[in-house]
Write a structure and sequence with these properties.
The protein has 348 residues and is α/β, with parallel strands linked by helices. It is 47% helix and 15% strand. The protein folds into 2 domains: 253 residues, Spore Coat Polysaccharide Biosynthesis Protein SpsA, Chain A (Alpha-Beta Complex), CATH 3.90.550; 71 residues. The protein has an 8-stranded mixed beta sheet, with helices on both faces. It is elongated.
Length: 348
């Protein structure tokens, strides 16, 4: 029985890779106001990629249970210069499920993930594609160049999250890396084969390995509206990532228990010293109550941490689908034959 997977047959660079094409996956949640403008920018991008590399493109819009007109606008988008798929989920399953739905429906070889709020600039995609086709990288991920415009507490929390998750992970996750990334055909094929339902894309895209490169960029301001990721949702996503990809919380609980046991042992030695050597009677009630409360609190924390992991195990055992598609539309682009010839320089 083979426990691994061979994806070496999928080319990673050059004209062969370009022939496989590019799928752009865009999860959408209440993005009606800026969707038409984003689509126009993706059309211009598709034209540029076809002229430079002969690269055929498609966009897969995944509507994650939007409550506004996002779905109706997506249905009406023209398949100009690139194919357009619109995948509508039966309810809001969350961004990780929407990304997986887009990956499952992507027909081209390479897959690029980007947000639909306008903060991931389509102009940068051509640079990411160049790293894949010209330089042979399998995973081209982007990261914020800096966080100077964010509150100090948020910067500290982000740094602490990555420090904690990488402490308990064998494959480190680059700090500040986002979901805006390109996967080569073999990297996308590898990601599709991972069976877990509690998915943390940042971690999984790093775990699969291959040649990876970081591209720093400055996120653009939101094209419209406010972010739907509140502090509560960000904390929930952080817990999801920690428990799905790292054993750091369990290690932390073990260290906390060891620290408490060491403190209790030393406290017990001090009581014996005062009783046997100095002949002092140590008052029992206050120390007993404090000790019980400390032990009880630590035990509850440890039970909660273990419970999170048990919940993940239960979710995997149930094996429920991570999303349901309620509607799927597919439009094929009508590309003139002359437009399929790439423009190559003499050096290429």
């Amino acid at each position: 029985m083979t426990l691994g997977s061979d994806v070496s047959r999928l080319s990673t660079s050059g004209a062969t890779a370009a022939a496989l094409g590019l799928s752009i996956v865009v999860p959408l949640y209440n993005e009606a106001a800026g969707l038409a403008l984003l689509h126009e920018r993706l059309i211009a991008l598709a034209v540029a990629l076809r002229q430079r590399y002969g690269l055929a493109s498609e966009v897969v819009y995944v509507d994650d249970g939007s409550a506004d007109a996002t779905l109706s606008i997506a249905r009406g988008l023209a398949a100009t210069a690139l194919d357009v798929q619109v995948v509508s989920l039966s309810r809001n399953f969350g961004k990780e499920a929407a990304l997986m739905a887009g990956l499952d429906h992507a027909r081209r070889g390479a897959v690029l993930f980007m947000d639909g709020d306008g903060q991931h600039p389509p102009d940068l995609i051509e640079k990411l594609v160049a790293y894949w086709i010209d330089d042979g990288y399998d995973v081209v991920y982007t990261a914020k160049a800096h966080r100077d415009n964010e509150p100090a507490l948020r910067r500290l929390a982000v740094h602490g999250f990555y420090a904690l998750i990488n402490w308990g992970a064998r494959q480190k996750i680059p700090e500040d890396a986002g979901d805006f990334r390109l996967l080569s055909p073999r990297a996308a094929a590898a990601l599709r084969q991972l069976p877990e339902r509690n998915r943390f894309f940042k971690g999984l895209a790093s775990w699969i390995g291959f040649r990876q490169i970081r591209v720093d960029y400055e996120p653009a301001p939101r094209a419209h509206g406010m972010t739907t990721f509140s502090a509560t949702r960000l904390i929930g996503l952080s817990i999801e990532g920690l428990t799905s990809f790292s054993v750091a919380p369990l290690r932390l609980a073990s260290l906390l228990g060891l620290l408490l046991a060491t403190g209790a042992f030393l406290f017990g030695l001090s009581i014996l010293w005062e009783t046997w050597v100095d002949g002092k009677s140590v008052p029992g009630y206050p120390s007993l109550v404090v000790g019980l409360m400390t032990i009880g609190g630590v035990q509850l924390i440890m039970i909660g941490i273990v419970g999170e992991y048990i919940g993940k195990i239960l979710s995997e055992l149930k094996a429920r689908p991570i999303y349901f598609v309620a509607e799927h539309t597919d439009k094929r682009a009508d590309i003139p034959a002359a437009a399929t010839e790439p423009e190559r320089t003499a050096a290429e």
